[in-house]
Specification:
The complex is a heterodimer of chains A (788) and B (154). In chain A, 28% of the residues lie in helices and 23% in strands. Chain A contains 19 helices and 28 strands. In chain A, β22 and β23 form a beta hairpin. Chain A is globular and about 85 Å long. Chain A starts with 13 loop residues before the first helix and ends with a helix. With 154 residues, chain B is α+β, with helices and mostly antiparallel strands. Chain B has 2 domains: 77 residues, Ubiquitin-like (UB roll) (Roll); 67 residues, DNA polymerase, domain 1 (Orthogonal Bundle). In chain B, 32% of the residues lie in helices and 18% in strands. In chain B, strands 2-1-5-3-4 form a 5-stranded mixed beta sheet, sandwiched between helices. The chains are: A alpha+beta (788), B alpha+beta (154). Chains A and B meet through α1 and α17 of A and α2, α3, α4 and α5 of B.
Chain lengths: 788, 154
């Protein structure tokens, strides 16, 4: 019986946030804490010929100025957690990412010196007294240009700046032949521009070394404290993991950018021991722009072939993926295994080939950003489909219906084997589009569009997407190059009074786990949600965890909780059977009590809990206590999908695009808390639409990020959006106990191409047969497209 | 050189000595440990630091603490009265107007300013009033609904 699951329970975590009592890293004050400021390179590619720190060291209030010379050479830097091999089998190029640069800076923002002082302002003032002589060299920022002969090298030992080349799918020659034989080929060359994640809480880290216990504590704004601990201890500093506590307290948004192990985390830990005082570092927003791992940045060329009837016969794409100057923690996975593996989309395309070149440039690192690889794939496929529909003069919805993979539930019908490695778990794709079309009033819209004559061009754009979430089966990702497992753990501790504490390895930074997970626990145990507490984010409280990203928390972390709950109930039944003098097989559990079937003899969860800790009258041979840990490693990814529709109005005089409506129908499997899932969709939509209409990180030819502040980078604002119109269908995941698929990234994956497609549609229907408008679709770009 | 200021913060009179360059946001956070006021940018763009000075919403990262000498300041910690949530706080909870919570204090202080000036704002007026406050989690959708909830309640 569900008292909580499926209901929009108000979030239990809200109270501390709405009263100003949230505890983010920068809110934490430790006794005797010092403050760090990092002096960063103003150049994208330069040799350091000298560093003079004397004047800074002598400033009153300065405690220390550290440079690379203060770090042992044995500490090479932060590692990469995913290995991609070249097509010829060679290991990817993996140059070190140093904590502080020794000889050569490779992007604007590369860290050169760490100033530690009694206050932030003193540390910053002192940094201005550090003298560094740079020998500035040419830089390259575009991945396609960076592979050209003679381009400036980011790393001397990485020829042509190529980190790896990689291919997936059917043999290229087969796909090329299918394209050659196709009745129609739609071809598109485009840029999926670089964007900045922009969590509103800037990254922050506090390092503390306790000499009494010889123990380190790192507070950091992270999405996965245990992973940071593992990387920090085993791969960066070589310190014992059991002597390190990592806490990710309240975290003000992540969107992928706080998954990764950053140099600053290692710096504050390492130097807190050297200095003998806790050290806090908090990024200024301009530092966030320069150093939080960016997203996207693909230059792609793609072809989609169709037969006479509009069936897709082949898809081929080549992408240059910009990785930045170094390899961030999961950077190589994003344009490969999180990108190439989704090229089947929702369609029965029989021949697919994806070719990706990963490239170093003199820019900040690029890594997973909400959706991570899957938005890039969706953008590519869905732009091609809508464009093909215009070119072939077929309705874009009809073209999709022709090509959808038929429904399969993954139970009675097998999963769908794609041409690009993955096997989809369950899917029923036509209904999401049908529902979205009903919501939009499609026929009426087309009439309105045809009739419009007010100097505005109406357009409609579609996107029907799939994503791989619930990341992921460890064995699968291991085979694909992951250097970590991707299971999740959960401990359920039933207190003697029947109150329940759950320790989850998932990490909430806005997703509402403290509520959603508690709903699952309360329902399974038949107790009040007020009797459940969800604990996360502290490696001293939670034994292990892999953290939150890839829409995995409920699908993987929630499943681990369910496993532990099952163990609690199994043992509880033995205790109950003893107390009721019945066989455990004769008991049923409902509403928080075990009852002997067909009788009114029962014992409550609370009584069983107490008995387990006061085991006077107790089953022989059974251990006391009611406390279980579980690890859950899924057997497959989960595959949410959906249909997004954008309606735009383009001003033909100015090129200004107004987003009039946005409709999203998503299928994320079973839903525990509809309110929270809707919120996840809303947020994802805003980020996806933001990329289409507003956002772009712009590097100039010298490698300067010329819009690295909120004055210059166009963040989406409240008045940029209409109210979203959203709904869902439900196709349960067949392979996890909750039937859930994950909702964190859906909005961001589906929405971007729908908006661009809508503008192309508006222009095309008014005689401007443009194939592409570079995102973000500024008025200038749209206006220019209408002139040419 | 240290400057002495006296001001009221959430109903309490505070006297402090501080450097002239101390911004109000840092003063609230570092000196008074009122860490509900957040700092999200360097350019007075994001609004996470919004507080009320003499009843009007102001970005506290753009004001020197010495400029606030003699003023009456309300921060998010001063929104609820006698243990009762302010209708705006209640609205954010009821309508799921927050996720990570980092922008929330600033959002609520801006919303309070709006509802003081315009007790029954339209959706468009709410969206325009939030122009100076960034949220990366909610897509603003439920923030708008939260403020509508509060407007109905107030």
């Amino acid at each position: 019986m569900s008292k909580y699951i499926g209901k929009s329970i108000k979030r239990v975590e809200d109270k501390r946030f709405i009263t100003g009592q949230g505890k983010y890293t920068d809110d934490i004050k430790l006794v005797n804490m010092a403050f760090a400021y990092i002096l960063r390179s103003p150049y994208a590619n330069a040799k350091i010929t000298s560093i003079t720190t004397d004047a800074a060291q002598e400033m009153e209030g300065v405690l220390a100025v550290y440079t690379a010379a203060d770090i042992p050479e044995s500490i090479a830097g932060v590692p990469c957690g995913w290995q991609v091999n070249f097509k010829n089998g060679d290991t990817m190029k993996e140059p070190p990412h140093p904590l502080l640069v020794r000889n050569k800076v490779r992007h604007v923002g590369d860290a050169v010196a760490l100033v530690v002082a009694e206050s932030r302002s003193i540390a910053k003032d002192a940094s201005e007294l550090i003298q560094i002589d740079y020998e500035v060299m040419d830089a390259v920022t575009n991945p396609k240009e960076a592979v050209q002969k003679g381009a400036p090298l980011v790393h001397e030992d990485v020829p042509d700046n190529i980190c790896f080349d990689w291919e997936l799918g059917n043999p290229k020659e087969e796909v090329e032949k299918a394209l050659k034989d196709a009745a129609h080929v739609t071809e598109l060359e485009f840029i999926n521009q670089r964007v900045v994640p922009n969590a509103i809480e800037p990254r922050s880290a506090i390092g503390h070394y306790d000499t009494a216990y010889e123990r380190y504590t790192l507070y950091t704004s992270t999405q996965n404290p245990h992973l940071i601990r593992l990387l920090l201890c085993a791969f960066v500093l070589g310190i014992p993991e059991h002597k390190v506590r990592v806490v990710g307290p309240d975290v003000g948004g992540g969107f992928g950018s706080k998954i990764f192990h950053y140099t600053e985390e290692a710096l504050v830990i390492f130097f807190s021991k050297v200095l003998g005082r806790p050290i806090k570092w908090t990024a200024e927003r301009s530092e966030s722009f320069l150093t939080d791992a960016h997203g996207r940045d693909h230059v792609s060329h793609a072809k989609m072939g169709f037969d006479q009837d509009g069936k897709i016969v082949a898809l081929q794409a080549h992408t240059f993926a910009n990785l930045g100057a170094y390899l961030s923690t999961f950077a190589p996975a994003v344009p490969t295994y999180l990108h190439g593996t989704l090229f089947q989309g929702l369609y029965t395309t029989p021949k697919i080939n994806v070719d990706v070149t990963g490239v170093f440039t003199h820019t900040n690192v690029v890594d997973a950003y909400r959706g991570a690889g899957r938005p890039e794939t969706t953008y590519l496929i869905e732009r091609l489909v809508d464009l093909a529909a215009l070119e072939m003069e077929i309705d874009p919805t009809e073209l999709r219906y022709k090509n959808f993979i038929p429904a399969f539930d993954g139970v009675d019908q097998p999963g769908y084997q794609t041409q690009v490695a993955l096997q989809y778990d369950s899917g029923n794709y036509a209904p999401v589009l049908e529902k979205a079309l009903e919501m939009v009033g499609y026929e009426e819209f087309r009439k309105e569009q045809a009739a419009q004559s007010n100097g505005k061009f109406l357009g409609i754009g579609f996107s029907t997407y799939i994503e791989a979430c619930g990341i992921a089966p460890s064995a699968v990702v291991g085979a694909l190059g992951a250097r970590a497992g991707l299971f999740e753990s959960a401990q359920v501790t039933v207190q003697p009074t029947g109150k329940v504490t759950v320790y989850t390895g998932s990490h909430s930074h806005g997703q509402g786990h403290e509520t959603t997970f508690a709903q699952v626990v309360a329902d399974r145990l038949g107790i009040s949600i007020d009797d459940v507490e969800i604990v996360h984010g502290d490696s001293d409280r939670v034994a292990f965890g892999m953290g939150t990203y890839g829409s995995r928390s409920l699908a993987v972390g929630g499943s681990a909780i369910v496993k532990s709950l099952d163990k609690v109930l199994e043992k509880g039944a033995k205790i109950a059977a003893h107390l009721l003098e019945a066989s455990a097989d004769d008991l049923e559990y409902d509403e928080g009590k075990w009852t002997v079937k067909g009788t009114d003899k029962s014992v409550s969860f609370g009584d069983v809990s107490l008995t387990s800790y006061v085991p006077h009258n107790y089953p022989e041979g059974l251990e006391p206590g009611l406390d279980f840990s579980s690890f859950y490693d899924p057997t497959n990814f989960t595959y949410p999908f959906g249909a997004h529709i954008a309606i735009v109005e383009v001003d033909k005089e100015t090129g200004v695009v107004k987003l009039k409506r946005f409709i999203a129908v998503d299928d994320v499997g079973n839903v525990i808390n509809p309110m929270i899932v809707d919120g996840q969709i809303h947020g994802g939509l805003a980020q996806g639409i933001g990329q289409a209409m507003h956002e772009e990180a712009i590097y100039d030819d010298t490698g300067q990020l010329i819009n690295g502040s909120y004055m210059d980078y166009c963040m989406p604002r409240a008045d940029d959006f209409p109210s979203f119109e959203i709904d869902r269908t439900t196709t349960p995941c067949p392979h996890n106990p909750l039937g859930v698929k994950g909702a964190g990234e859906a909005g961001c994956i589906g929405s971007t191409p729908a908006v661009v497609n809508a503008v192309i549609d508006a222009l095309w229907k008014n005689g401007h047969k443009v194939k592409d408008i570079q995102m973000p679709m500024t008025p200038e770009r749209v206006w220019s497209a209408m002139q040419g | 050189m240290a400057y002495k200021i006296t001001l009221t913060v959430n109903g309490k009179t505070i006297t402090a000595e501080l450097e002239a360059r101390t911004i109000l946001a840092d003063f609230l956070r570092e000196h008074l440990s009122l860490t509900g006021t957040h700092i999200g940018c360097d350019t007075s763009s994001c609004g996470a630091c919004t507080v009320h000075i003499n009843g009007a919403a102001v970005k506290s990262c753009t004001v020197l603490a010495v400029q606030a000498d003699g003023t009456d300041i309300t921060t998010v910690e001063g929104l609820s009265q006698n243990g009762n949530l302010h209708p705006i706080q209640e609205g954010f909870n009821q309508e799921h107007g927050l996720q990570c919570g980092f922008c929330t204090p600033g959002m609520m202080m801006t919303a309070k300013d709006l509802l003081q000036r315009n007790p029954n704002p339209s959706e468009q007026e709410i969206r325009e009033a939030l122009e100076g406050n960034f949220c990366r989690c909610t897509g603003y959708h439920n923030i708008v609904k939260s403020i509508q909830y509060a407007a109905n309640k107030m």
